Amino acid sequence: MSASARGLGTERERDPGQASIGELLGAVTRDTSTLVRQEIQLAKVELRQEVRTAGRVAGMFGGAALGALMVLLFLSYALWWGLANVMDQGWAALVVAGVWALVAAALAGVARGQARTLRALPQTSESIRRMPAALRDGHGTDRAQH
Question: Are 26 and 34 in contact (CB under 8 A)?
Fold first, then answer.
């Protein structure tokens, strides 16, 4: 394309009243494409930052869980040794193990009850269910027919 033709296009872009419909549509398409690319880049940067933060938070929770485990372990030992003063050491160990078995059973029961109420991605599932078949599979045909 010659310099004069490029200059003419630039003049038309500056004055939308002089541009053809094709040029206006081309400019809108370019601008939309640029906007979408910029939004995708922004989303990637934000996602990376969130993932880094989530990783640090998960590490801190892991450290806290390890600390809590150590506290429970030493409290269990203390209970075991305390009970060993009034009964045989083997029986004291079984009592402590029994207490922990009851705690585990109670937590498992509560977790199972809550797991039964879970629905996988309820809003997304509802949106996809309402979406026309042409948009769902991207080909305009039903996937079962392929």
Answer: no
For residue 121, give the 3-state DSSP assignment. coil
CA-to-CA separations, 45 to 41, 50, 105, in angstroms, rounded: 6, 9, 44
pLDDT in tens, the chain (146 residues): 444 444 444 544 466 678 788 888 888 899 999 988 998 999 888 989 999 999 999 999 999 999 999 999 999 999 999 999 999 999 999 999 999 999 999 999 999 999 888 877 777 677 777 776 656 565 545 545 54
Q: Where are the alpha helices (DSSP H) in 15-142?
A: 21-83, 89-116, 122-130, 133-137
Q: Give φ, ψ of 118 to 5 degrees.
A: -70, 140
Rounded CA-CA distance 46/22 in Å is 36
The two structure tokens encoding residue 9: 């296009």
Residue 143 per-residue DSSP state: G
Distance of CA 111 to the CA centre of its chain: 21
Question: Smallest Cα–Cα separation from 100: which of 64, 84, 76?
Answer: 76
Q: Tell me how far apart the alpha carbons of residues 54 and 100 are, in angstroms, rounded to a whole number.
A: 31
